[in-house]
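Researcher: Next entry in the queue.
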Amino acid sequence: MTRDKVSGDALFILKNLKDNARQGRSNRLADVKAALENSVSLDFDSYFFFLRKFHYIAMDREAQLKLTDAGDRVVDGEALEKFTTEVAEFFADQITEADGEEEDEGGEEPTNRPPPPPAQPAAKRQLPPTDLILEAPPVQPPSRGRRPTQPVSDEQPSQSSGSGTFPAPPGGGFAPLPLTAVAQQAPSSSAKGQDLDLRYVKYDQLGSGPLGTVFKGKHNALGLDISVKELKDIFGYFSFLQRGEVIKRLKKELCAQAQVRHPNIVQILDQNTDVARPYFVMELMKGSLREKLDAGQGKGVDVKAAIRWFLQLGYALKAAHHSGLTHHNIKPENVLFDHYGNAKLGDFGLSRVIEVDQSKGMPQVFVGTGGMGYMSPELMARAKDSGPSSDVYGLGILLYEMMTGQIPGRRSALPSEINKDCPAKLDGIFDKMTQDRKEQRYPDFDAVFDDFYKAFGDKEYLVRGDLILSSDLVS
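Model: Structure for this entry, 475 residues:
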């Protein structure tokens, strides 16, 4: 790999960004990556970090890329010597041959390649996304009453299934282990998979979210079906020098969730954050609550199933809270189902991986992926004293949505007034779970269950402490 090839690739990316802007094509990070990653010699993310570090490109809050003045000058043929020198400095460990020693294997230099056609992101079923970082001012907590009539919707950058690795931080650090590139279209489950650390094989892409991609996989030694979540896009929203802090937080939260063993919490089986694209391994799940709500076409889900899932998630959160772990990002995308139809809560603490910490140079950000309608006022205000009652609030909103198909607004009717099949005795429980003031809300799930089992004293849902689990396979 020569210096001229790598600098040609970087210039090729800049020219395409300028062409896209002129012709009205998308310059969103994920779309550009999907379009160009197979046209450059090294991993696209390496070029992205170089161009951003040396201020040839900038990225706005919607993850749209644009050329800086320095980038414009390079595209116009100015300061090319300086540009090439910076390329050689940044990619020193990957430039292995002197210019002129490597034969051209056919084709033109990257700078002469015609621009690729505009990216057409494939329509893919979206699995529960984790957390997208959007720069925004703090949200003021609402006044006492129901939530805003329309939930806040956050625009998400579209994601590609492309691959990429990240260069090691300056001054040392771990040496990234190479991972097999992910194909533009995932192989079928019958095709040969791709090894991860010789312990796991990953197959079909199941879905993607703002920060990563979920694949079906297999544990080599046990022959066990698993899912692998690669957080390959998480670093695109941070500067290169903050990567170590993100990794530290990620490992902490994954280890914390793995310690809580409960039948209604998605089990973390393994993690590897010391690779170019960190990933963690989970039990294989079957669909999400978001899919079930979408299938209900705005009418919610079966009432008995909703109450059973509400109890399962409540007991899961109670167990997590007793272990000192809060969720703080409850939403339908993070509620998954096993093959028996039992609800399980996943992605604990990933919002904390990317929350503000100015003492460590983290950017001023706000977390959201369409989950703000489920966030308590203190979470939206970024209060430091958010605790278990914030999860009580989130599950209360989710209960209402399961019953009615809607997120409650400030003056919304109670659940039983919308759905005649919903027991009226749930109305008061929902109302107290979702009070804006913490002191008027249930403080924890022990208090929620006190009122629930008093209301349902006929043991229709067994007695307090008895967890209802299905053992019939769902087709």
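Model: The two ends are 51 Å apart (CA to CA).
Researcher: Noted, moving on.
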